[in-house]
């Protein structure tokens, strides 16, 4: 799949990045690049972000929590969406995700 990039400047969460939870292998690699001063956490949800009747429950990534520098990680098992949340600071956290799958999709 093609890389997807979302950014969050200042406290708050980026737009959700939907992923193909049917893809096999599922594997997603991601990197968060920091510009300025931020404290951020990568999060995922198992909820359907396209269902207006559902308020997604966001769960922190097991290792990319309260980071202040550029970092990378992965998801080896299915989730429905990922995002980056800036916990504090005035800088920008930019997340890039790449999911395994068919070339060019």
CATH class: Mainly Beta
Biggest sheet overview: 5 strands, antiparallel
How far apart the termini lie comes to 4 Å
Low-pLDDT residue spans: none
Oligomer: single chain
- Report the principal-axis shape: globular
CATH topological fold name? Jelly Rolls
Quick one: how many beta strands? 9
Helix content: under 10%
Could you say which structural class the secondary elements and strand pairing correspond to?
mainly beta
Average of per-residue pLDDT values: 95
Task: Kindly describe this structure.
With 105 residues, this protein is mostly beta strands. It has a single domain (4-99), classed as Jelly Rolls (Sandwich). 0% of the residues lie in helices and 48% in strands. Strands 2, 3, 5, 6 and 8 form a five-stranded antiparallel β-sheet that branches. It has a four-stranded antiparallel β-sheet with strand order 1-9-4-7, with no helix packed on it. 23% of the residues are buried. The model has no long low-confidence stretch (mean pLDDT 95).
């Amino acid at each position: 799949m093609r890389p997807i990039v979302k950014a969050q400047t200042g406290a708050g969460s980026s737009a959700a990045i939907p992923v193909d939870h049917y893809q096999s292998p599922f594997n997603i690699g991601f990197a968060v690049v920091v510009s300025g001063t931020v404290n951020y956490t990568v999060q995922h949800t198992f909820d359907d972000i396209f269902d207006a009747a559902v308020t997604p429950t966001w769960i922190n990534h097991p290792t990319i929590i309260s980071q202040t520098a550029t970092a990378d990680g992965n998801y080896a098992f299915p989730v429905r969406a990922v995002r980056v949340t800036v916990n504090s600071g005035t800088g920008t956290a930019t997340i890039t995700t790449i999911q395994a799958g068919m070339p060019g999709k």
